[in-house]
Amino acid sequence: MNIEFKSRYFICSLLIFLLPSCTTVVIDQVQHQATNLKGGDAIVVIGRRSGSDYETEPELISCIGTVLSHGEEGINVIPENDFVDTLYPWFEARTAPTHVQALQRLISYEKIAKVIDDYNVHYIVWVDGNTEKTRGSGSISCGLSPTGVACFGFGTWDNKAEYEASIWDYRTKKLVGKVSSVADGTSYMPAIVVPIPLIAPVQADACKAMGKQLRSFFTNNS
Amino acid sequence: MNCFKRKFFRRNKATATLLCLLMVTFFGCKSTLEVEGNFPTPIINQLPFDVGVIYGQTFSSYKYIEANKDRNKWEIGIGKSQVQLFNTVLGAMFKNVVITDKVGDESSTNFDMFIQPNIEEFQYNLPSETEVKMFEVWIKYNMKVYDGQGQLIADWIQTAYGKTPTAFFQTQEKALNEAMVIALRDLGAGLSIRFVRVPEINDWIKEHDKITTNFVKPKKEAKKKETKNNNKNTLLSKRNSKLLPINNKI
User: Fold this and answer.
1) Of the candidates B42, B134, B190, which has its C-beta nearest A88's C-beta?
2) Does B242 share its domain with B119?
């Protein structure tokens, strides 16, 4: 009887632990020109790292790349690190082109143009933004006693993920469009002896939404 | 009774271990970091110079030791990685790079120039110290360039900045290492792009007439120059065919 009660208690705790909090995602898209992604063409997703008080997270960039390349109709995505390392020092935080005209100037250098051509890059997607905690309240206190550590209390916080992707056509040297993804979510952490985190996957949801939107951006027009 | 005693001691032992761990965490912390990273070779046009580079003992084994009593104790070893970066970047920038001990050494008169980097200032910020959730690193380098005879050509400050955001399950050491590697990459980028734009160096290069263009030659300009040279050569060949080989070399 005791064992049965314990296993039920454990399953309930596990379910609560695995239950994620809710996230709201808003996607916006502006398209200036139709895309024309052919078989063999590649795209590269790069994070902007020039902000003074934030940085586009590398894990978000790789997440968007994974969403874009996933499935049978997956797009050929060049990993950010490979691209930036091969083209060092021209795509570093302080040297990367900030607008299409600067890209035009950059690829007027033969060596750089050759590397990009070798990758068969058709589109460059620049992602700018970050995920941050916007509000936090509640308190959890933990105590140490001869019987062990125990925590009591309740904590809650809001996260906001705000990202914007600018899509450059490398071949026509034009800005093709923009996709933005804004995700809000509240996480909770009740603590009754053990803290139970109910985390809202704000960044992951923003990434999935942006990835899917970018995918339709490239595939619906081609 | 025996069982109760055993339980009591087990619990006390566990508590004591936990207390010790907490004390070590809060009072006895000293973080050590030896910066490690890979630095890619820059895509730039090579300058046709033989260069001697002087690192010096202080530079190649540079270690920042936090002296501020209000901050956590940190020991950050940068020496090895900065030498690795300079070797990679300078190796791509110049035709031939050799590590030497002195500027204008008699045995090394074959060098066109000497480069001597030095760290002037090092600063870092941890997220716990600022409102920004970022590990940040600033390094100020003093770059000195001498000619083959040991005369100072240029002396300028090259800054390096790197930052990395906080992430779940990432240790402070790993995050600071990442920020350091980004800062060193930034240094390499600045040095490789800015070198020929330093006015004194640009003048020296023009004087020495070994190179007349920047590191990377734009396609159009290069093509224009090629066309101009071809036209020149054609004109010269019409005037005097004996001059052609010399002009071709130039």
Assistant:
1) B42
2) no
Residue B161 and residue B130 share a domain: yes
Q: Could you tell me if B162 and B224 lie in one domain?
A: no
Residue B227 within any structural domain of the chain: yes
Compute the nearest-CA separation of B216 from chain A (Å): 6
| A99-140: pLDDT as tens digits | 998 998 898 889 999 999 999 999 999 999 999 999 999 999
Residue that is written with structure tokens 């066109």 in the block = B112
Both B116 and B225 in one domain: the answer is: no
Whether residue B218 lies within 8 A of chain A, CB to CB, comes out as yes
pLDDT at residue B231, as a whole number: 45
Kindly state whether residues B119 and B241 are assigned to the same domain.
no
Give residue A6's pLDDT: 58
* B96 assigned to some structural domain: yes
**Burial (CB count <10 Å: 0-12, 13-18, 19+), residue A200:** buried
> Quick check: B161 and A57 CB within 8 A?
no
Alpha helical stretches, state H, A100-197: 100-106, 110-119
Query: Over the range B195-204, which residues count as b (16 or more CB within 10 Å of their CB) and which as e?
Result: bbebeebeeb
- Measured between CA atoms, how close is B145 to chain A, in angstroms? 22
**Which pTM was predicted?**
0.80
Which tokens is A125 given?
A: 């997607």
Q: Kindly give the parts of chain B with pLDDT less than 70.
A: 1-29, 105-109, 209-250
State how many domains chain B has: 2
Write out chain A residues lying below 8 Å of B40, CB-based.
Answer: 85-86, 88
Q: What is the complex's ipTM, to 2 decimals?
A: 0.84
Dihedral sign for Cα atoms in the order A78, A81, A82, A84: positive
Q: What is the pLDDT of residues B30-40, one digit of tens each?
A: 789 999 999 99
Q: Is residue B204 part of a domain?
A: yes
Say if CB A214 and CB A60 are below 8 A apart.
no
Q: Which of chain B's residues have a Cβ under 8 Å away from the Cβ of A88? A: 40-43, 185, 188-189
Chain B contact set for A148 (CB, 8 A): 14
